[in-house]
């Protein structure tokens, strides 16, 4: 049953329009956060705090807050209209191909919204601009985008050829082509508005208010209150400010209650104090659930940001930022929590276990304080605590379902990121960090984590060491390999790490960090008596751009006191190495310190024999592609034999990398290869495992 529910909800969540809609709402997050925090600060129910600000800033301090509030939360419908229509348009093929600019579709959506809601007295009312107009803005955003794209595809049939074939600039031509689709889209909403006015359906909200009023007036106490609660939260779920709608309906109503006791229980203060903990949907329960079981995810971070506003029952961040609206995973708990909480509180008050709420308390008063002030009793606090715990229990299973889905989505995006970077490496395509889709967002998030690690000295990257051995298995050294076991994505390919660091201009910082870690470990090995060499990869970009590279290497020699002959810098061959005088000078100085230089992937790709001379290399690593084919391809076998013969004549040490079978080792040994690196001998190992490997296999005598 749970699997079927999850499959259905996941299918709904992955629906393209809903995904784009949620993305559009996320664009609102900065303004929702600003507005929510300002609202919380304005309504902080501490007299000393209010008096302090009054004394410091004077009478006008609240007006500043109100102005910020008007510029953020009170224009949410307008901003949502813009962000949602933009997000939806960016998913359209017409926009992705560059044929239509997204801004044209956004303006069309905005014009359609104004045409539909205009009441002739003003362009847009405060009610329509704020959260009360959110539902209409979202619906119009979706429909106008779909209509515009439909008419644009049909433009050859409906648009004059002189507009389609206009030969001016590309921007002007694109504008002309959008004329008829935009006109027809706005016209449809204008005509729809007139038709609704004509048949009297524009008063739909008034009709809804009247229906709610009748339910409340004639209902039987708790059952009618339950209907009101459910309607409120269904409206909220679809982006309509349910609280405002219901309060408008009940503002002048006097319900017919079966007993005086019920009349004293079912009040707005009762709902605010015992039911709407953290706001509509008892979202304080969701916030706590996310903090308790949420992993290091965006939802968990959002929950932390929402703590301050949530305490003051301001939950726009959760509703529009998580988001809860149009999120099928949270529909059931969002409606169910208030139903359960209202029942437990109503029952407890009726049974005399807790007192009714008799004092009016500002709706922004924090939980527990509102329970005490509203009832004048500690029992009110206990009731709130019980209800909060119930809300958390209701939300937890759905948070887990949401987390499982998010994990699947993240893994999919992570795999796509790896594929994109592979294509970029092969085709030299554009970067991933400047993309505005999920792949770009993930790449930027990974870069941010790496930067935080460098800044706070809490880097989650680490090094592993792959042994280099002779044909007997005795260890002559190791190569330091960059690794990242991410808490969410698991193993992150070094190709991904290097590419995003390269795009983020972190290559030099990463290279220095690797040297610090690797040569620090080498010093510890030597202190324990293990005289083995260690190679560290040096990217062509760091070699070319890092003007302090020589000084950095020299500082490691001086600070750590390592014998330079055990240190090796390996020139990574994913691109041609710059052969400028500056680069050669750096390598000459490094070689002059007594440090070894090696050429990676020798014999394939960009490497050439001249690299041995030009870059002062005294070690070459025979490319794994040659090694893999050495036992089956006679031609490549001859290439390897020639490389080994040349290395012997030039007194250059050769290491065969990517060795995986005993047959390869035997043949390479016969051809004259002395040293090997590959899975046949060992995978990369942690520092402790590497030392254990050295103890078991012994060390090559390198005294000569």
From TrEMBL:
Keywords: Cell membrane, Membrane, Sugar transport, Transmembrane, Transmembrane helix, Transport. It is found in: Cell membrane. Residues 1-398 form the PTS EIIC type-3 domain. One of its GO terms (cellular component) is plasma membrane. GO terms for molecular function: protein-N(PI)-phosphohistidine-sugar phosphotransferase activity. Residues 443-698 form the EAL domain. InterPro entries: EAL_dom, EAL_sf, PTS_EIIC, PTS_EIIC_3, PTS_Sugar-EIIC/EIIB. It is a multi-pass membrane protein. One of its GO terms (biological process) is phosphoenolpyruvate-dependent sugar phosphotransferase system. Pfam families: EAL, PTS_EIIC. SUPFAM superfamilies: EAL domain-like (SSF141868). This is PTS system, lactose/cellobiose family IIC subunit. It comes from Desulforamulus ruminis (strain ATCC 23193 / DSM 2154 / NCIMB 8452 / DL). The lineage of its organism: Bacteria, Bacillati, Bacillota, Clostridia, Eubacteriales.
